[in-house]
Amino acid sequence: MLATASPGKWDLLRSSGLTDDEIAHSREPGFEERFRAAAGGVDVVLNSLTGDAITASLRLLSEGGRFVELGHNELLGRDDVPEDVTYLHFNVMEVGPERIQRAFAALLPLLVDGTLTRGPLTRYPIEEAPEAFQVMQRGHNVGKAVLELSTRFRPGGTVLVTGAMGRLGALVARHLVLRHGVENLLLVSRRGRRPRAPTNSSPSSPVSGRTCVSRPVTSPTSSNCGCFSTTLRSPPSCTRRPCSTTPPSLV
């Protein structure tokens, strides 16, 4: 196995068992000569590089080799690929949920028993999301970047719940009240779907000894109407029939 990466990531590759002869800088075209000296050629290329690096990777392929493109920006045509090379563009969205499920089912036991280990994680508070994206844009991240949501809510503040008129929205609202002690909810819904369970007509709904003031905000039933209002009625400019303003049950 051969791998390209920026020097800051080489220690991770070494810890995976690769030697220095099997590692090269992904931004330097010289990786072609380095890998040819180490292995002569390769049978499969998993590519996420761009520009001249794609051409260099194609030249490294042995006869009958396969080039698997993981990116989406620089796809090659049939005329750009040697006749004895199979070119494949991998798009995870085309794999299908059933096949992905089978893959996860096969991988999970290997992660549990330690045969496989996950890559490193770098955690960022949600407030530092711009910094996290900048690190990824520069290609400086090693492993996965994870945004963590704060579970602290400002006392006396209001929590906005979108899609709140459905069953899932009601469960989220209930969780916020029971688990986090939220006292004010602003329930927003585009469809205004009535919940199946009976609801309390009072805006203050008791939940296991807690009281939460919920204020529903709805829009017309038509999915073509994007109007929202901070009252229980549609804006005057909207002529479509208002939908239900009944808040979801928190009980």
UniProtKB/TrEMBL annotation:
Pfam families hit by this protein: ADH_zinc_N_2 (PF13602), KR (PF08659)
GO terms for MF: fatty acid synthase activity; oxidoreductase activity
Coiled-coil boundaries: none
Matches recorded under InterPro entries: ER, NAD(P)-bd_dom_sf, PKS_KR, PKS_NRPS_Biosynth_Enz
Region of interest (Disordered), ranges: 192-251
Superkingdom as given in the UniProt entry: Bacteria
Keyword terms, alphabetized: Transferase
Domain Enoyl reductase (ER) residue range list: 1-147
GO annotation, biological process: fatty acid biosynthetic process
Keyword Zinc-finger found: no
Biased composition (Polar residues): 198-208, 216-251
PANTHER family documented for this protein: FATTY ACID SYNTHASE (PTHR43775), INACTIVE PHENOLPHTHIOCEROL SYNTHESIS POLYKETIDE SYNTHASE TYPE I PKS1-RELATED (PTHR43775:SF51)
Name this polypeptide is given: Zinc-binding dehydrogenase
Organism: Nocardiopsis eucommiae
